[in-house]
Amino acid sequence: MNYNISEENEQMRMMVKNFVENEVEPYAQEIEEEDDIPQHLVDQAKELGLFGLSIPEEYGGIGLDTVGKCIVYEQLGRTHNGYVSLIGAHTGIGTTGLVRLASERLKQKYLPDLAAGKKIGCFALSEPGAGSDATNLGTTAEKKGDKWIVNGTKHFITNAPIADVFTVFALTDKEKGAKGGITAFVIEKDFPGVTVGKPDKKMGLKGSHTSQVVFEDCEVPEENVIGEVGMGYVSALTILGEGRVGLAARSVGSSKKLIDLSMEYAEERKQFGKPISKQQAIQWMLADMETETEAAKTMTYRAAWLIDQGEKAIKESSMAKLFATETYNNVADKAVQIHGGMGYMAEYPAERFYRDARITKIYEGTNEIQRLIISKEMLKGS
Amino acid sequence: MNIYVVMKRTFDTEEKVEINDGIIDEEGAEFVINPYDEYAIEEAIVLKEAHGGEITVVTVGNEDAEKELRTALAMGADQAVLLDTEDLDGEIDHYTISEMLSAFFQDKEYDIILGGNVAVDDGAGQVAPRLAEKLEINQLTTITKLDIDGESAYIERDVEGDVEIVEANLPLLVTCQQGLNEPRYPSLPGIMKAKKKPLETLDLDDLDLDEDDLEAKTRTVDRFLPPEKDAGKRLEGEPHEQVQELMSLLKNEAKVI
Q: Which InterPro entries match (chain B) (predicted)?
């Protein structure tokens, strides 16, 4: 057993930690109030190579392994979740399809700009009628000559308002459906027939924008198919599977930050003549927050390590996503409780984390879907 | 241009310092590049970007300092050298460190050597000036601006809050003050590249030095933390009553008037 991380991973951890604390965190309140991430923070992330962390070196990225990515995401999770959502949706589901499944030609064409952050990626699977049941797609693609004609509506697409490159899933064979009838495409925002809607109004994740995307007789060149025609559902599962540990790592980072904030507050806030950190009720909450977060962290890095050993780690990734996101929500709830009335006030970050935590149990596969995956893996062959 | 940076690994300034039996407890503490040395590294990179050349970072310490050297490489230095103190049993002071550095520089060609104004741990600011004296080259401390044109350097120095403008010839040693620049973060590609950059370790034999010649010239007698501040005293009552009480306290308690 070896729990040590490599020297370069430790350097990355320190760099992202310092960057987040010194450069991003001072703008957290502004991001929340303006619902906008200052451009210079996005530019800085690009300069530091954060937009290319999952893209291989030969295409201009740095091709981190899964443990390395988790280390970066964990530290990004310590600040405003809208910021990490913008970067994560790009480096995770927004580019994984191209990295893992696309032809060499598509990789050469799109990955260098995505790695440098000159172009932003996003992932368009969800539809009004196809959420957890991702097989029930209404978006269709019909082959005409050497082009595919895509029609349909996607919604809740993170980064869509700023994205240049969309990974889009459409039904190419109604009869076959999920079993060979769904295909993944790369669609550029400038292709004729693409309309991006207004940003959705959300409970949290301010500054990270999601919106509807409508395809109306959108012409897509034949070579823009990602992977094989008909294999899109498998592709979607692969892409989402890889994203899970990343979201778990982000949730661990946010939980750790909430614990730090809660300890700080508990030592400052005096009631009954002493800091509330001297009260056992508070101490026990802190102990539970720390214990659950450490457990989530261990599960996350074990799943990441298994993936780096070449394992699929389907069950382990789902368990990490499930447990880490539920932990984040529990920790956020206790953090608000420790902050008392102040925890309900927008000027204290605990309030923001509490709202931002909620979506983690829903997106990148709801936690109900994670339980489904876990039990399926458990009962395999029985 | 041959650019050298002398740097030090120090306690993270945000760490809480604990002292046990006169020795600083390093257990579990985070270490960083001395923040003033970061200005020196950044300035070296700016110089290289403008004039070309090569940057070498040098430190005196044990193998733990390799981590900070790698960070300097990740920021943009080309190579790193660790002058290893493993063979030294006794105390190490600024004399020891500057002697080792000076031995290292004997056969080197350099246009400029940059260092931090002081190290945040002991705040002595001795090593770089001692090194310049040993090498018999020009030195300017606490610089806040540096422009190099050919063989001459235009420099602004922070002198107790005022600015002094100086022109000097290369080769030159400077120490960097806050305000000179904003050090960059090492980028992720920089960190990956740093793995492959050369990091050389030299021991006393390599430097042609003998342990006896490096014996510290100073001895630390004791170390202690500053006394904790007591809570202030709040005066109450009408303004003239408060003035009276304050006068009495200054006379009788503080005994300053």
A: ET-Flavoprotein_bsu_CS (IPR000049), ETF_a/b_N (IPR014730), ETF_b (IPR012255), ETF_beta_N (IPR033948), Rossmann-like_a/b/a_fold (IPR014729)
- Residues A182-203: pLDDT tens digits? 999 999 999 999 999 999 999 9
Query: What pLDDT digit, counting tens, does each position of A91-147 carry?
Result: 999 999 999 899 999 999 999 999 999 999 999 999 998 888 878 899 999 999 999
Quote the minimal CA–CA distance from B50 to chain A in Å.
19
In a shared domain, residues B117 and B244 = no
> What tokens does A182 get?
């769904």
Considering the four listed CATH numbers 1.10.760.10, 3.40.50.720, 1.10.260.40, 1.10.540.10, the one that applies to the domain covering A7-116 is: 1.10.540.10
Bridge-based pairing of strands B152-159 and B112-116 is unpaired
Does residue B65 belong to any structural domain of this protein? yes
Measured between beta carbons, the chain B residues lying within 8 angstroms of A53 are 188
**Residue B194, min C-alpha distance to chain A (Å):** 9
Q: Looking at the structure, do residues B140 and B194 belong to the same domain, yes or no? A: yes
- From the list B185, B187, B195, which residue is nearest A8 (CB)? B195
Contacts of B195 in chain A (CB under 8 A): 8
Euclidean distance between the first and the last CA atom of chain B, given in angstroms as a whole number = 60
> In angstroms, rounded to a whole number, what is the distance separating the alpha carbons of residues A354 and A366?
18
Is A364 an annotated catalytic residue? Answer: yes
- Domain map of chain A by residue range? 7-116, 121-233, 234-378
- C-alpha distances in Å from residue A369, one per residue of A136, A178, A360, A366: 15, 17, 13, 5
Chain B contact for A45 (CB, 8 A cutoff): no
pTM (predicted TM-score)? 0.89
CATH superfamily of A234-378: Butyryl-CoA Dehydrogenase, subunit A, domain 3 (1.20.140.10)
Q: Which of A7, A53, A64 sits opposite B67 (nearest CB)?
A: A7
| Radius of gyration for the alpha carbons in chain A, expressed in angstroms and rounded | 21
Kindly report the CATH number assigned to the domain that includes residue B104. Answer: 3.40.50.620
CB B131 within 8 A of CB B6: yes
Q: Do the chains contact at B191 and A10, CB–CB below 8 Å?
A: no
Q: Nearest CA of chain A to the CA of B63: how many Å?
A: 13
Tokens of A13: 């951890």
Contact (CB<8Å) B67/A48: no
* Interface predicted TM-score of the whole assembly (ipTM), two decimals: 0.87
pLDDT band, very low/low/confident/very high, at A82 (cuts 50, 70, 90): very high
- The one-letter code for the residue type at B213 is D
Cross-chain CB nearest to B187 (options A7, A8, A49): A49
- In the three-class reduction of DSSP (H, G, I as helix; E, B as strand; rest coil), residue B204 is classed as coil
